[in-house]
Write a structure and sequence with these properties.
alpha+beta, twelve-stranded antiparallel β-sheet, three-stranded antiparallel β-sheet, disordered N terminus, disordered C terminus
Length: 417
């Protein structure tokens, strides 16, 4: 209001008595007063509005009223005159921008200053992970969600595999080497190279339950002349108990030709600074995985097809999906009375979204007739295309499920009551 009053000193203020109704074409309203619908020269049409002048400190202050629009006789509109008022910046927009910046900064500061209220709470609340041990080990925490557990109320083997894969990719990303694809470094991207896994061994000591927080550590080492080994160590964050150990071997493949490739020296220069000089966290199982067919397999499941969601960014089936297909042919009595304690996977080739697969399982030893009462069970598996080409060979070891679990028994009793 004060600014408006100030600007009125610089502009002429028309008298209220000089403002009258003007005749508009088609309105039928008479024109009264000295203002005419057209000027003497017939050049402009002017629309005038009047309002009661405001008061400041008891005295009336006149306001200059500018026409909303000025229209030339030929019908071409022109912009209103430039004044001191309409050249001022929009301070409301500026204040809104400053407020947004301060709120975002406060939110970031609260995230950095966040501390757990209990020692057993998740120490990595936002799941970002971090580099530890002189920059060679990547560590990330995961909370077991309700949708990640199975009928036994524990995390499934697929959930554990997803954690391993996620930490591997986040390790490369945190190190600043992730460009595109699954773990491709800048030099790999220039040469259209990607990583593919050839072998993986997993040992599960105990499966976490819903609500447990697990800590996953992962690191890489060299493996021969043209390979890389990645290891994982998974433990219970609250107790420090080891839950899972896993080791894998990776090689490079051209994503266009789908052929294996040697590691270029430029790529080796990118990844070797992150190699640890350590033995495998899982002792390598050198036992040969025999080939299976319809004659030697005890159980066969056919007609398995990948869905669109089973493909990864490199346009081949995700490695975790293979485990689910392998267990499709596992006999139901084993799944009901035993839990998977170890698995060895040898990847032979990839499959695409149009592939149709078969899952074959053969039981080792003389436990076929009495699976439920067997202490230890070993199975051999083969996942292949229906045309006969092998995808994955595998060996699984099973142990009886824990019979005495006080927490589970209490929940079952409560549900029965």
């Amino acid at each position: 209001m004060v600014a408006t009053a100030t600007t009125s000193a610089f502009f002429a203020v028309p008298s209220p008595d000089s403002i009258a109704k003007t005749t508009r074409p088609g309105n039928g309203v008479a024109s009264v007063g000295p203002m005419k619908s057209k000027s003497a020269s017939g050049g402009l049409q002017v629309k005038a509005n009047a309002q009661a002048p405001p008061k400041i400190n008891g005295s009336s202050v006149g306001l200059t009223t500018f026409p909303d629009s000025v229209k030339i006789e030929d019908g071409t509109p022109s912009h209103p005159p430039r004044t001191f008022i309409n050249q001022l910046p929009d301070w409301s927009m500026l204040l809104a921008a400053i407020t947004t910046i301060f709120l975002a900064a406060e939110k970031q500061w609260m995230m950095l200053d966040w501390k757990p209220r209990r020692p057993d709470m998740l120490m990595d609340p936002f799941g970002l992970g971090r580099i530890v041990q002189d920059g060679l080990v990547f560590r990330q925490n995961f909370s077991i969600r309700s949708y990640e557990i199975g009928a036994d109320r524990t995390a499934s083997i697929e959930t554990l595999m997803n954690h391993l894969q996620e930490t591997a990719l986040n390790h490369v990303k945190t190190a600043g080497l992730l460009v595109d694809g699954f773990g491709s470094t800048p030099e790999m991207s220039k040469r259209n190279l990607i990583w593919v896994v050839t072998k993986m061994e997993i040992l599960v000591d105990r499966y976490p339950s819903w609500g447990d927080v697990v800590q996953v550590d992962t690191w890489v080492c060299g493996s021969g002349k043209n390979g890389m080994r990645r290891d994982w160590h998974v433990l219970d964050l609250k107790t420090g108990e080891t839950l899972t150990r896993a080791s894998s071997v990776w090689v490079m493949m051209n994503k266009h030709t789908r052929r294996l490739s040697k590691i270029p020296e430029e790529v080796r220069g990118e990844i070797e600074p992150y190699f640890m000089n350590s033995p495998p966290v899982v002792a390598e199982d050198n036992r040969k995985l025999p080939k299976l067919d319809e004659c030697t397999a005890d159980f066969v499941r056919s007609g398995l097809t990948p869905r669109w969601n089973d493909l990864d960014v490199n346009q081949h089936v995700n490695n975790v999906k293979y485990i689910g297909w392998i267990l499709e042919s596992a006999p139901l009595p084993i799944l009901e009375s035993h839990e998977l304690s170890a698995i060895t996977l040898e990847y032979r080739r990839e499959c695409g979204r149009d592939s149709v697969l078969q899952s074959l399982t053969a039981l080792s030893g003389n436990c076929v007739d009495d699976l439920e009462n067997s202490a230890e069970v070993e199975c051999r598996h083969l996942l292949r295309l229906e045309s006969g080409a092998e995808i994955v060979r595998a060996r699984t070891e099973w142990r009886p499920k824990p019979a005495n679990n006080p927490e589970t028994a209490g929940e079952v009793s409560a549900e029965s009551a």
